[in-house]
Specification:
Layout lengths: L1 E4 L4 H13 L4 E4 L3 H10 L7 E4 L2 E4 L1 H12 L12 H26 L8 H20 L13 H15 L9 H10 L3 H6 L4
Parallel strand pairs: 1-2
Antiparallel strand pairs: 1-3, 3-4
Helix pairs in contact: 1-3, 1-6, 4-5, 4-6
């Protein structure tokens, strides 16, 4: 299995963490190179990362890839989903994804020199990030995202989102003490350390 992406993408990082947690080797294809980009475009009409190549076919989107890996290889070191916490975990992941996608758009617009405060849609994106981080700060239960202890998909989504925001200086986290404590609680998890972007 070949994972197409970049080492800084939080969505790619989620897949890499799951691979490590399951003890699966995912060959990495760097899509910042011409060959990597060509391979990505061959597999996906969207040319969005991550894409997992399985038998010459691309599995598109991090959620679909992670679902496939868990279905084929079990949950390894990850907390399996439970019916009692399904709604809570699902809501956490959806909220994290929404905030992250908004923060990513803001980051790239700013990097391209756009005054995001001058565009009403981008102000909405900025407000969505802040509002969602405030909500998440109230939702976390110490190191966990659900009433059940253990590192699961919600925790993975939140860690990768928050660490990307720190890495890219995309959103201030200082106003959210519970989120900072949550991050500190997971800072030394080996799969997260091994995939943390640097530089």
């Amino acid at each position: 299995m070949r994972l197409h992406g970049t080492v800084t993408s939080p969505f790619v990082r989620r897949v890499r963490v799951v691979g490590l947690e399951l003890g699966r080797t995912l060959e990495f294809v760097d899509t910042t190179t011409p060959d990597g980009r060509s391979s990505l475009e061959r597999l996906s009409p969207l040319a969005k990362i991550p894409v997992l190549e399985v038998g010459g076919v691309g599995v598109l989107d991090s959620h679909a890839i992670i679902d496939l890996l868990l279905a084929q290889h079990g949950h390894g070191g990850l907390r399996p989903p439970r019916p009692a916490t399904q709604i809570c975990e699902g809501n956490m992941v959806v909220a994290v994804d929404g905030a992250l996608e908004s923060a990513i758009r803001l980051f790239y617009f700013r990097r391209d020199g756009v005054d995001v405060d001058a565009i009403p849609y981008m102000r909405t994106e900025r407000d969505r990030v802040g509002r969602t981080l405030a909500w998440l700060d109230q939702q976390v239960r110490g190191p966990w995202c659900t009433p059940e202890a253990g590192f699961g998909l919600a925790e993975l989504a939140l860690v990768t989102c928050l660490e990307w925001m720190q890495f890219r200086a995309a959103a201030p986290l200082a106003p959210y003490p519970a989120l900072l404590a949550f991050l500190a609680a997971h800072a030394e998890r080996p799969s997260l350390v091994a995939t943390r972007p640097t530089g």
